[in-house]
Amino acid sequence: MKKLLFILILFSQMGILLAQNPTLMVSGQVLNANNLTPISNHQVDIFISFDSVYSIQIPATVMTANDGSFTYSTPFIAQNATVYLSTTNFYGIPSTAFYTVTNSPINQVVNVNHIFYISNDTISTNCDAYFYFTQQNPDSLTVQFTDQSYTTGNGVNYNWTFGDGTASTLQNPLHTFPYSGYYQICLTIYDSICQSTFCDYIFVGNPGDTVITNDCYSVFTYNQDPSDPFNFYFQDLSTGNPNSWQWAFGDGATSTLQNPTHTYTSNGIYLVTLTISNSLTGCSSTFVNYLSIDSTWTTNCQAAFSWQPGNVPFNIGFYDFSMGNNIQTWNWTFGDGTSSTQQHPFHSYGSPGLYQVCLTITADNNCSSTWCEFVQVDSFNFCNNYFTYQTSGNDVLFNGFHTGAPAIYYEWHFGDGTSATGQQVTHNYAAPGTYYVTLVSSDTVGCTAISDQIIVVNGGGFNQIYGQVFGGNFPVLQGYVLLFSDDTNPAQTSYFDVTVIDSMGVYVFSQVPNGDYYILAVPFNVNGYLPTYYGNEIDWANATLITLPQANNPYNINLVPSSGSQGNGPCTINGIVNGTPAMRNVINNMKILLFDENQNPITYSGIEGNTFSFSSLGYQTFYINPQLPGYESEMTQIVLSEENPNVVVTLTIEGTEVVLDVKENETQLSIHGIYPNPAEHNINVSLYSNDAQNGTLKIFDATGKLVSENTQTLSQGENILSMDVTNLSNGVYLIQMTTAKGQISSHKFLKK
Question: Per the domain annotation, does 737 fall within a domain?
Fold first, then answer.
């Protein structure tokens, strides 16, 4: 879990200055070796190793354009770099190249260009790598590997990697491992016509040995001094029992302390690197993260996200937690040459590695914000872990839980420089305070999981809340959970927090003050289920209120299934939410529930900007009920018929009530969305009109200047309008539709 990082993102003062860095530009072309024609839609793998005090590695994958060209760029974050380029021909034989480049302080762009000449001959054959292994005896560290590969080519070559830093080119190698543990063994074969790789995890040695793996993982967190925005406290959270720490703070300063303090001298973005090593095992690992300082930060939006591995190898779920008024666009880049404009995308990587993921948002007042983070993608993302704790004075009882294959190892780092192993451990802290605790667990298939939490020891009034979210008999794999105080209690200070549901449906809140709370689980793309409060209710007024400190964990939530029918027809219910700008973040959490004539729940709609919509409804009676915690509302009946197929609902926040105003058959104009957004050449405007009418589509820049205008004929119902924005400069624009009847609807988009 990435709870601490999420908190730091939301509350730290940040600015994005990446554009100031010099750029490493990698480009080239893939050509047919037979006739020198370009080859389009062909994959090129790029691996960049920055060599400074420590090695920083960035993998990427790009596809060639119609002319066979490819490009990739990244900030040049060190003095020297080695660029590795690789592609394959049409039957799998690789072609590689590498370049060593140097960045001069005066250079803003360092270019690397390479042309691949590959064959596209079609050969009807294949090969498949495979092996089996035998140990000399149950406790032996020596293993015999036997090749069982299939090939029809000539001149077979063998390349073995044993997961301990060694390799072999023998067909049937005999290998001795340094100690007991899990190792990933890979065999790659290649001959005159094809290439194939097979990997497998094996356990070597005595299962009773305490040494599980020679792996070590570098990771750290940091806290900003609230009284001095230039002063930072760094904390090592690495695994693998390191005995050496090498820090580089991005401003030329270094440290060998485990948990150093560093003071910067100016605003900026700094690339902080921690390299750890264990002299006993020979293990070394490097972790890199960005740190941003802007002592004058006043922006009203901030990009932020969290991520969780999925239940399929290389699959990662990304969850947006950005802050801002009326966030309009989300632009993700996944570090492998692909992107997405979804708010909460799921992405499948082609191979394991370290990828830099960036999210850019745009919001009201021309606010734009970017956050970047390195994401480690592993071959085996089938497991997760979490832990619970109970405090008694300075003594804390920890219980670890591992989801996946049976766990064989639990390792704790208590945040005070000490550690322990075991599923259940008790730790005595020397003094009360706040500690960052990390749990590392491994299972029988070699899957390793890491989770972390902030705990308060003898904190007097702080609690932990955790549970699991289910849809029917199965855990919900995608979603988030909201925790908010009972604002109807005038003696209680308002409290709000959010966390991601992990891939086993588990959620955890720590550092929750004493008080009365509601818990709301919201699924992502879970068909047939509705946002549900603890107590298994969809109406917050009927939800079960929990009271702390008498915690009754776990607080499991069973999502309420939809049970009504919306029919299938041409009818729509569209809505607008009115509220003060100060209530924008509150309104964004509103959920509009839709019920059938028997008041059975059908579905729900969130708030996009200040609007919501239900479409393709049949001719029947419906009820809607807005759910905004702490605000009272009533079921409102809406009758849709041939005479009344479209209804506009206005929701207004008045005191502690949500007041509904229903207008039947009102001529309505509404821009639902713009895609693609950000746009490069052409944009499509999705627009609804109750009447067939004429209108004018206008585009204004950020200063309010009209830059484009054309007349459009609108049909009744949904309309898709296209406009060419190629000639517009990069930036934020407002697109507006105005009709002869005086109706106006607008939406923002980003031109890049």
Answer: yes
